[in-house]
Amino acid sequence: MTRIAKVRARAVAVPLAATTSFSSRSVSERHYALVEVEGDDGIKGVGFCYAGHAAGTLVTKAVHGLLARKLVGQDAHRVEGLWEEMYQEALLAGRLGAVLRALSALDIALWDRNARAAGLPLYKYLGAVASDRVPAYASGGYYLDGKTPEMLGEELAGYVRQGFSAVKIKVGRGGDLGFERARIDAARAAIGAEVLLMLDANNAWSDLPTALRFMRIYEEFDPYWIEEPFSPDDIDNHARLARLTPVPVATGEIEGGRWRFKELLDKEAAMILQTDACVCGGISEFRRIAATAASYGVTLCPHWFHDVHAHLVAATPNARYVELFPDDKVLNFRRLVAPQLGFANGMIELPDRPGLGLDFLPEMVERYALEPWA
User: Fold this and answer.
1) pTM of this prediction?
2) Disulfide engineering: 130 pairs with which of 73, 197, 314, 357, CB 3.0-4.6 Å?
3) Contact predicate 116/354, CB 8 Å
């Protein structure tokens, strides 16, 4: 039996080259929580999560003060049991947010460690559906000061030239409907009629009439989905919008736990779930959510961190697309890990290396560290 010998965590803050905006907020740096779980056989797994644009040490405090003690000395392969014990330990401290993200990162590290010990890539260790590559969509189209609709179109055309058959842009910022029409018109003109166009509102709207004013414009351009139209807690408005627009509603990227996803499914509030293993409770909970969604006939297209989600899409029958940021301008986690997953012609190439197939770069982690490894 392999027992868990060490658990370490560290928060880092990686600045963006330029302040980048969504519909309702702007970001100038990204905080990430990094964890390592090592067995007494010397094999180590890594996990991580996005910790927000500030206070990233909240996640590592949850690792150090709450969850690590449930792991050290335990059987490294008793992943489901350890998940339950960590979740019970976290009930009063936080079933969502920073604490569940800490649990997610630790769960990912356990799966990574065990797949490395087995000598298998994670997607094969989980039971593969795909064997060499998985489809991806290019994620971009952010609001930047001075960025015109024409510049947005040029950006998206570049993704199509790289071979992507699906792209995503940000929408819903402010109340200038004319500017929004110009943006989506330029986007559709740049990519053509056959390329899928996803729209991400990032919780832009607080009421249904406002959402419908924007949606009536967007509907003309045949979007593949409208993502996060309302606050994640406003499930009822998601369901109402889903009934009133032909555009599929997608959400779930900052949801945690299978129970919240079941509510989305029961209320028919989303046709596509964007479950993020680094948020929802790790790989263990992602698999439970995916299985639940399959019984409703619902597809998963997980939220960013293609480093882990390429493996999960490859091992999940009802998962379709991986979200891919082709560069590190927005998801600058790229700077912290190597080797990178390759991509070509709109497909992510699955690795043959054991586990996730990546490691943290010590010199880069040190450069951006908010605290020492502990």
Assistant:
1) 0.97
2) 314
3) yes
- Summarised one tens digit per residue, pLDDT across range 47-58 is 999 999 999 999
Please state, in angstroms and as integers, the Cα–Cα distance from residue 272 to each residue in 14, 50, 276, 294, following that order: 30, 22, 13, 11
258-266 and 235-244 helices cross at what angle (nearest 10)?
30
Distance CA(281)–CA(83), nearest Å, equals: 8
List the one residue out of 343, 277, 279 whose CA is nearest residue 312: 277
Q: Which residue type, as a one-letter code, is found at position 144?
A: L
Measure the CA–CA gap between 152 and 324, rounded to whole angstroms.
17
88 in the same domain as 145: no
3-state secondary structure of 149: helix
Output the domain CATH number for residue 242: 3.20.20.120
248 shares a domain with 295: yes
Q: Are residues 139 and 108 in the same domain?
A: no
- Across 152-231, the runs of DSSP E, i.e. the strands, are 166-170, 196-200, 225-227
Nearest CA to 97 among 48, 49, 29, 64?
49
Q: How far, in Å, CA of 229 to CA of 262, rounded?
A: 19
pLDDT of residue 24: 74
The 3-state DSSP class for residue 82 equals helix
Strands (E), 2-95: 4-21, 26-39, 44-52
**Do 310 and 338 share a domain, yes or no?**
yes
pLDDT tens digit sequence for 217-236:
999 999 999 999 999 999 99
Cα separation, 63 vs 93, whole angstroms: 12
Domain range enclosing 131: 124-359
Domain count, the chain: 2
| Maximal CA-CA distance, the chain | 64
Both 230 and 272 in one domain: the answer is yes
